[in-house]
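Milestone 3.1: sequence recovery, worked example.
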């Protein structure tokens, strides 16, 4: 019974991290740049706030970093390194303040200082933070563009807190762990089936015990 429950639990856990294949990675991982023309009008700003609010509605976590002095080439490299479902956006502080007002991310207002890039993470939090940290390391930006802080479940995290969260397993790592566990189940069942009748009860007990 424990083996069956384990299988059901593992499959359910994996499904919780599934994303719809209908949307491509390039469509879901975006970089929003500066403002000009229509974007500077009142209607353009309202539209921009709505876009950010839509991102917040689907985000489990947001974190922010300095956006100054990052080249277009570096921005494209960063975009390609982010996992599906994570959006990086350069947002003016006034517009971000309007967007987060009344949401679970309202506490991010204390980070609205200077030009910032915001990361809106839909589900793969660990991989998103690791991707950014890898980007600044590869581009020599660790001193000037390190993570400022973030918000998750209405709680504010400083740079160290965000980095700790980034050490959590990524979605792919979780898939690998689940796959490894499922792969081990047939071996466990075989141990039970091959056991002599006299030792069947003991074999079942051993098979359902967690391996040390």
């Amino acid at each position: 019974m424990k083996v069956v429950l384990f299988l059901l639990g593992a499959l359910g856990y994996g499904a919780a991290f599934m994303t719809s294949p209908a949307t491509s990675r390039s469509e879901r991982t975006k970089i929003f740049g500066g403002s000009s023309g229509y974007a500077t009008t009142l209607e353009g700003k309202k539209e921009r706030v709505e876009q950010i609010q839509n991102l917040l509605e689907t985000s489990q976590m947001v974190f922010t970093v300095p956006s100054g002095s990052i080249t277009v080439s570096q921005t494209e490299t960063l975009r390609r390194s982010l996992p599906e479902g994570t959006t990086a956006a350069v947002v003016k502080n006034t517009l971000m303040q309007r967007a987060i007002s009344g949401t679970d991310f309202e506490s991010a207002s204390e980070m609205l200082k200077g030009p910032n890039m915001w990361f809106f993470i839909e589900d793969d939090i660990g991989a998103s933070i690791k991707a950014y940290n890898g980007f600044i390391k590869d581009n020599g930006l660790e001193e000037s563009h390190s993570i400022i802080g973030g918000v998750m479940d209405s709680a504010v995290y400083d740079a160290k807190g965000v980095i700790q969260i980034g050490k959590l397993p990524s979605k792919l790592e979780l898939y690998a762990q689940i796959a490894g566990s499922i792969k081990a189940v047939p071996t466990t069942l075989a141990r039970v089936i091959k056991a002599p009748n006299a030792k069947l009860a003991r074999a079942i007990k051993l098979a359902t015990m967690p391996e040390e």
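The CA atoms of residues 194 and 200 lie 9 Å apart. Strands lie at 31-32, 61-66, 86-90, 116-121, 149-152, 155-158.
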